[in-house]
Each structure stands twice: as C-alpha cells, then as structure tokens.
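ARCHIVE CARD
CATEGORY: sequence design from structure
SOURCE FIELD: tokenized fold
FIELD CONTENT:
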C-alpha cells in the first residue's frame, strides 16, 4: 500500500481534531460545497470560474480554501486558475466574515477629513485589523477607496448603509445599534 493511501486526508484530520458541534458544521459545509460543485459540472460548457465561486460563496458564505482542488477538478481547470480569480476579485472571500460588514472609506476626501483617525479608533474599538473579524463574529472590517460620498467624509459603510460625517462617537453608537439587530452574516 502506498503512503498516500495510509495517510488520512487533510479533511479527515481537520475534522477529527474539532469538537463534535464543529465537526457537524464542517460536514454540513463540505456537503454544501459538494452540492454546489455538482451543480456546475457541465462538461460541454466553457467553465465560468467567477460564476462558480460566487455561487459557492452565496451558498456557504465564503470560498473554503480546502475546496479549491474539488472546484478545479469539477470545472476542468487548474488550482492556479481558481486561486487567480479568488485573489483578483475583492468581493470573493476565503474566510467566514462577521455578521456585519464595516467598510471604511480611505479615498482622498475621506482621508483629508480624518478618515485614518477614524479607522484607528475603529480598529482599537473592535480590537481587529483590516480584513479581520471580531472574536464574537459580529463585525468584519474592510477598507474601500471611494463610496461616492466625498462631500460628507469621512464615510463608513455598514452592511448596505452609507454613513457620512462619522466621528468616533457616532461610530461607537452605530456599532452598539448593530450589535442589537439580528441580521444574517455578510456574504
């Protein structure tokens, strides 16, 4: 028997080291990934990697890195092709995001109106950096370079709402309101 057959797969070892509840979540996620991949398997069509990844992200909430080999095989492309699309499009995510997505504008007008200071206050308040998610899974912090709200900067977008003339105090108030609402996780 070869070495490859004797070693458990990375999915088996990852699942074995998790508590029972997390193993179930991992199994559910893997089933969702398999279902979505199966729905794309159209050998006669030219593969649309972006559409496939967006579909998976819509179903699972993000594109799990461990699913890349399966996606590549199902689409008949290389893992490098999948990775290239994943890294090119900023709306594709490889990690679970928080319930609320906070985007801080770092365009010129917002930076001139203390957007960097606002970002620093926000990272201190949430105790995460850019691209991070709070431990409780409530918030994910990202940057954008223009929200088209330049006249009233600094601007922050929380989920789908844009807020201008933000200060540290108004931002903290907004965060408290968000913690009280029950929105689905950001995709």
């Amino acid at each position: 028997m070869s070495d490859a057959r004797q070693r458990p797969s990375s999915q088996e070892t990852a699942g074995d080291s998790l508590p029972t509840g997390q193993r179930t979540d991992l199994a559910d996620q893997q089933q969702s990934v398999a279902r979505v991949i199966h729905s794309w398997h159209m050998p006669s069509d030219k593969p649309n990697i972006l559409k496939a990844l967006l579909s998976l992200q819509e179903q699972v909430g993000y594109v799990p890195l461990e699913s890349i080999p399966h996606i590549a095989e199902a689409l008949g492309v290389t893992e490098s092709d999948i990775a290239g699309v994943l890294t090119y499009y900023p709306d594709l995510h490889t990690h679970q995001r928080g319930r609320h997505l906070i985007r801080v504008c770092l365009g010129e007008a917002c930076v001139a109106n203390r957007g960097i200071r606002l970002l620093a206050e926000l990272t201190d308040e949430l105790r995460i950096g850019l691209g991070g998610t709070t431990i409780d899974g409530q918030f994910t912090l990202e940057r954008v370079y223009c929200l088209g709200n330049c006249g009233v900067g600094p601007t922050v977008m929380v989920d789908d709402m844009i807020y201008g003339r933000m200060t540290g105090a108004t931002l903290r108030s907004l965060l408290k309101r968000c913690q009280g609402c029950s929105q689905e996780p950001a995709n």
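CARD ANNOTATION: The chain has two domains: 9-88, 100-180. Confidence is low (pLDDT under 50) at residues 1-23.
SHELF: design records, drawer C
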